[in-house]
Prior knowledge:
Elements: H1 4-15, E1 19-23, H2 38-52, E2 58-62, H3 64-67, H4 71-86, E3 90-97, H5 101-112, E4 121-124, H6 130-142, E5 146-152, H7 159-162, H8 168-179, E6 193-197, H9 205-212, E7 218-219, H10 230-234, E8 243-247, H11 249-252, H12 260-275
Parallel strand pairs: 1-2, 1-8, 2-3, 3-4, 4-5, 5-6, 6-7, 7-8
Helix pairs in contact: 2-4, 2-12, 5-6
Amino acid sequence: xxxxxxxxxxxxxxxxxxxxxxxxxxxxxxxxxxxxDASGSFEFCKAILEATESLVCGIKIQMAYFEVFGxxxxxxxxxxxSLAREKNLIAIVDGKxxxxxxxxxxxxxxxxxxxxxxxxxxxxxxxxxxxxxxPFVVRCEKDGRGIFVLVRTSNPSAQExxxxxxxxxxxxxxxxxxxxxxxxxxxxxFASIGAVLGATLPxxxxxxxxxxxxxxxxxxxxxxxxxxxxxxxxSVRKNGIGVLIPVSRSVLYASxxxxxxxxxxxxxxxxxxxxx
Length: 276
């Protein structure tokens, strides 16, 4: 299978977009025609996706918003993943999975091998160390999948444990570069193991982490509703690629009326114009 980094570059260049549609469906904010359940969540996400697909390189599914519905929610995720494949969009599952090696192996099998929950890439938590990451790395090496490792997240209390320069987040960044040795594309010099870095980081930190991880795709949530700077994120691109910007709330809930899909497209169009 083609290297994940190369497929990701193709998706970004085809749409001239580093934007991902973040699917975080909150029934409390749905327009009236959608039921507040798993079925309504799928239909709402499908409608937004169809309105914005020409402006994004892929989707990022936030698992918690579907897991809350149990089996029906997981079924909705399977359907959204299938829809993304039909539309040739990169699909990232955001569940921040990890565990001890044997359990991480099962998570990797569930999401990064062919099956009902198969996706192009997933987010993982590195706190358990290399043996908890290795099963995912193997799929990046052999099966053309990707992962995005938490390095420095966008939430206000992230610094309590992740720290700043010289602390845990930097140690993780250094490990990502090590893990990436076997997944780097000779064509674009980026690798299949990326990093999650919040777009809300203090000035200069994104550039610092880019220097620490020159071969990693950076997944940078926080632009839009959280107030992160798109310009800061775009400044750490290399050769026009290397960053992904997921946007969800500002697009999903641009309107709660009958014009919800049109309003979502207008909001995404404005973001697309800013990043192109």
